[in-house]
Amino acid sequence: MSDYIQELNEGQRAAVLYNDGPSLVIAGAGSGKTRVLTYKIAYLLENGYRPWDILALTFTNKAAREMKERIARQVGAERARHLWMGTFHSIFLRILHAEAAQIGFTPKFTVYDTADSKSLLRSIIKEMGLDEKVYKPGTVQARISNAKNHLVSPAGYANNKEAYESDSAAKMPAIRDIYRRYWERCRQADAMDFDDLLFYTFLLFRDCPEVLARYRSQFRYILVDEYQDTNFAQHSIVLQLAKEHQHVCVVGDDAQSIYSFRGADIDNILYFTKVYPGTKVFKLEQNYRSTQTIVSAANSLIEKNQRQIRKEVFSEKDKGEPIGVYQAYSDVEEGDIVINKIAELRRQENYAYSDFAILYRTNAQSRVFEEAMRKRSMPYRIYGGLSFYQRKEIKDVIAYFRLTVNPNDEEAFKRIINYPARGIGDTTVNKITAAATSHNVSLWTVLCEPLTYGVNINKGTAGKLQDFRCLIAGFIESVAEKNAYELGTEIIRQSGIIADVCQDNSPENLSRKENIEELANGMSDFCAQRLEEGNANTTLSDFLSEVSLLTDQDSDKDGDDEKITLMTVHSAKGLEFKNVFVVGMEENLFPSGMAGDSPRALEEERRLFYVAITRAEDHCFLTYAKSRYRYGKMEFGNPSRFLKDIDVRFLKLPQDAGLVRKVDEHAASFRRENRENFVSAMYGKRDGGARPRQEIIAPTVPRNLKRVTPSMGTASAASHSSAAAGGNAVLPGQFIEHERFGLGEVLKVEGEGDNAKATIRFKNAGDKQLLLRFARFKVI
Ligand code: ATP
Ligand code: MG
User: Where does ATP bind (predicted)?
Assistant: First the structure.
């Protein structure tokens, strides 16, 4: 039996070794569910399964990457690389790209993000002459999304009065027509929204039996993490694939189901054994993550929920300290309390900054912590907020990329037809849209031949449209010839975007320019990385596939990252930290005011709180503020009802309000006395004192990749990679330091000249095979 199997307890081992039929691992937080999945995959690989036989679905890209790295360490990078492992959306996107023609799309279809789909809905609502106050685009979007997650098509929607005409729908009788038009318009634009990635996969498998048969026989084993957060569509697709062979293993915890607002259905896990008769159920009871006190506190909290599978969870780690509860007078003071506590723990127990996480219910809460940390020059990283790819200037550039790859993309077209301003007004765009709708063709088709489609425009406008068409057509011609970086920077320059943001030196424009440069850097690195992995040509289309599904939860932790983590509780699912602060424990904030008095919603908020507490390994703290600046005004709040749900034996409650002040006074003196030491420890001696090292992460600049080109337009990907790579002659046994993967040992060198490859075992990134020609490392 392989060594790693010994690293499992009895229950975990039984779950890993059982592979005769469907299995369900249902267990509390920190009990090793994800570990079971990871080890099971390694075990399958060592017992006759090939990497591409295995489909492993995770909740975030980050989780998939971490699992892959872990498996790579056990069975080698090469085998791990070929696993089909990723989020539902990313795996299905890959399948849909390959099978697009079967369902009437081209392989280059665009993925509309939430903002694109909302904008399209807004246009449709307008075109139909409906009142936007009644048909709020956000509400309509949520209803359509809900329908898709329940696999209800526009035709089904029309026939399903009871289920889909609730009160609000009754007030919005046209919603079915909006849905139908929206559906058609997406198809016209060769575009899918996020929900379509699930829905069309289901339809593909339902309507193309030979395709289903192919994937069924390919994916001989299917594994799913965080099954409690799957929705009906995801559950149904897994069933389509697993029904025949029944080699399916899902793991989850009903107590951590926190995505019902996105259609997740806890019943999927509760009724798993009914859907897959003969399922073997494994329960794990030992928590390996947290102290006994944290585990007991979390148990006492979740017991208050009615709807749950009772589970015993215990820890054999230290008893640990009670969970500290802190009261602050204001949100600003809350920030200080947390920061002081972090400083204190670092001094007393030698923790690194990366051992701390501050978790909150809403993104807006991060601001006061940022400010507090900036003042104290503490390094931190925020996950979430406005993602890099949601920024206006980045969306503009990406819209050019999208139109280049898929000229039928309606939302991209509308976004840039007159940006930068080229004198094409709304009237013209409306005429084009109307012609496209009435002839059932895309906006681009009309643009190419406006007269054929009866668009009545003057000569001047016709000329401007023609110029725009030539601009994009020029880019389209280059798609096959140039790599993503070369074409991307060309587009940024020739479209006029860079000139537009360089018009003046206002701080806004400077920051836009920096962001665009950052995007170009990301593209350059993306191409370089793919070259290193042996992909000679990385097209713009490859780049778009890479970025179209990134979300704020996917930002990666750099291996050597010495930063405090700030994130929402939702994003923290599945992660663990030595010390966790759950902040903003107030009524109307946590639980969210949106939960109202609904018992179901309150139970979900309680589960969310359970998720928060169970992220902590050594220490957990809860804080609340008596007053808080929200929605532009001061609000006074009460402590969260959830604080009372935790058995008081596991809490250390605030003695008196004066305590907070004392902590603060102590902080102020600490700040004065230690400032100098702190600054020199962090940055070395410097003139002018500390410089804040804050980083608001652009979560999704292609992951983890280091910046290489200082400013755009000066270097090509190819030239910088060869410069960076240099003469990389290595021998087995040598140690190297790689720009991105860090320290590693050379295991093997194969091939000659341009084809020379080295297999390197990285300390933190597992085994990787790199083409020496492009690899960026130095021998140490
Ligand atoms: P969550 O519900 O939060 O997703 P989980 O059940 O998936 O948690 P894991 O993340 O797999 O739990 O494991 C929690 C921690 O305990 C990890 O650090 C993991 O490495 C460790 N762990 C799990 N099983 C064992 C074991 N048998 N021996 C030692 N450590 C273990
Ligand atoms: Mg897990």
Answer: 27-34
Report, as an integer, the average pLDDT of 348-366: 94
Q: What are phi and psi of 330, to 5 degrees?
A: -145, 170
Q: Would you call 207 a catalytic residue per the annotation?
A: no
How far, CA to CA in Å, does 203 sit from each of 100, 179, 184, 213, 683?
A: 12, 17, 16, 14, 56
CB atoms within 10 A of CB 664: 15
**Nearest residue to 439 (alpha-carbon basis) of 428, 429, 450:** 450
Contacts of 371 (CB under 8 A, 6+ apart): 332, 335
Cβ atoms within 10 A of the Cβ of 141, count?
20
Q: Cα of 36 to ligand 1 centre, how many Å?
A: 8
Ligand 1 pocket: which of 33, 288, 315 to mutate (most atoms within 8 A of CB): 288
Dig out the tokens for 620 from the structure. 């957990």
Task: Look at residue 749 and give its three-state secondary structure.
Answer: strand
504 three-class SS: coil
Query: Phi then psi for 624, rounded to 5 degrees?
Result: -145, 155
> Tokens 């994800």 appear where?
34
CB-based contacts of 128, cutoff 8 Å, min separation 6: 174, 177, 178, 181
Burial of 636 (0-12, 13-18, 19+ CB in 10 A): exposed
The two tokens of residue 508 are 């806004």
Residues with CB under 6 A from ligand 1: 7-9, 12, 27, 29-35, 253, 256, 288-289, 574, 576, 614
| Tens digits of residue pLDDT in 483-518 | 999 999 999 999 999 999 988 888 788 888 888 988
Q: How far apart are the C-alpha atoms of 558 and 67, rounded to whole Å?
A: 16
Partners of residue 759 on adjacent β-strands: 748, 769
> Which residue is associated with the tokens 């909740």?
59
Q: What are the tens digits of pLDDT across the range 256-278?
A: 999 887 788 888 888 899 999 99
Q: The whole model's pTM is what?
A: 0.79
- Return the ∠ at Cα 398 (arms to 95 and 105), rounded to 5°: 35
Q: Is the distance from CB of 96 to CB of 201 less than 8 angstroms? A: yes
Cα separation, 248 vs 278, in Å, equals 12
Place of tokens 């790209």: 97
Gap from CA of 226 to ligand 2 centroid (Å): 7
Distance CA 660, CA 640 (A): 18
Beta partners for 290? none
748 noted as active-site residue: no
Beta-carbon contacts of 758 under 8 Å, excluding residues fewer than 6 positions away, are 730, 746, 747, 748, 749, 750, 769, 770, 772, 775
Say if residue 20 is exposed, middle or buried (CB neighbours under 10 Å; 0-12, 13-18, 19+): exposed
Q: How far apart are CA 152 and CA 172, in angstroms?
A: 18
> Tokens 């050594």 map to which residue?
618
- Is 65 one of the catalytic residues? no
Q: How far is the CA of 32 from the centre of ligand 2 (A)?
A: 7
Query: Any idea what DSSP says for residue 536?
Result: S
Interface confidence, given as ipTM, is: 0.99
How many helices (H) does the chain have, and how many strands (E)? Answer: 33, 24
DSSP state of 231: B
CA atoms of 311 and 506, how far apart (whole Å): 58
Round to whole Å and give the CA distance between 542 and 546. Answer: 6
C-alpha torsion 272→278→279→284, nearest 10: 120
Of the chain, the percentage scoring pLDDT greater than 90 comes to 61
